[in-house]
Amino acid sequence: MGNTQQRPILITGGGRRIGLAIAHHFLNLHQPVIVSYRNEYPSIEGLRKAGAVCIQADFSTDEGILAFAEKVKSTTSGLRALIHNASAWLAEKPGTSLSDTLSGMLQIHVNAPYLLNHALLDLLRGHGHAAADIIHFTDYVVERGSDKHIAYAASKAALDNMTRSFARKLAPEVKVNAIAPAMILFNESDDAEYRQQALNKSLMKIAPGEKEVIDLIDYLLTSCYVTGRTFAVDGGRPLR
């Protein structure tokens, strides 16, 4: 990352799972990190103790998104990268509002990245050729759809398309790419039967863990040429 080392990396939804692992990875490299979180977890205090700037945010409204952007701008004059990890996974269920499900998925996966990319643009630009990055987290279901999570899949597909649009808009100063994972790691509550069913859905038959994603992020940040692309981390699952 060269002379851009001291500009922080901003990770949305950095208090749990992959976002948390990414945050600790960069903190271990003495890279400044800012994370957004919605609810206080013990992990947030752990991030603070490790040196991260943790900013509470509510992305369920546009006002909350823009208020978060203002807090970021008051914290730093530049960003090395903006990693859109914040996500939700709502299914269409009997008795739930379809409109609410769709609007909720679009809010977190489309409105939040769209507004933050624009609001924080001045922090990403002005540092040289390919000196900053935006990374969107999409999903392997963008390719194949989902009968139980239609709104979720549609919102991630919109984010995938937005990757290419922002890449066109922000080149050559800012590279914009997407990561499309399938099963990366299990929840502690997942039982053995569920785990085996999930593993059988991919060609590689494993849950690889956060390092697989972190290694890809490191590659994207190091590259001075790759932009506008989506990188599948899915164990060949769409080929099943």
UniProtKB/TrEMBL annotation:
Q: Which domain of life is it from?
A: Bacteria
Q: Could you tell me the keywords of this UniProt record?
A: NADP, One-carbon metabolism, Oxidoreductase
Q: Which Pfam families match?
A: adh_short_C2
Gene Ontology MF terms in the entry: dihydrofolate reductase activity
Q: What is its EC number?
A: 1.5.1.3, 1.5.1.50
Q: Which reaction does it catalyse?
A: 7,8-dihydromonapterin + NADPH + H(+) = 5,6,7,8-tetrahydromonapterin + NADP(+); (6S)-5,6,7,8-tetrahydrofolate + NADP(+) = 7,8-dihydrofolate + NADPH + H(+)
Gene Ontology biological-process entries: one-carbon metabolic process
Name the enzyme's class: oxidoreductase
List the SUPFAM superfamilies hit by this protein, alphabetically. Answer: NAD(P)-binding Rossmann-fold domains
User: Could you tell me what this protein does?
Assistant: Catalyzes the reduction of dihydromonapterin to tetrahydromonapterin. Also has lower activity with dihydrofolate.
Family per UniProt?
Belongs to the short-chain dehydrogenases/reductases (SDR) family. FolM subfamily.
NCBIfam families hit by this protein: PRK06483.1
Record-given protein name: Dihydromonapterin reductase
Q: Which organism is it from?
A: Enterobacter soli
Highest classification ranks of the organism = Bacteria, Pseudomonadati, Pseudomonadota, Gammaproteobacteria, Enterobacterales
Underlying gene? folM
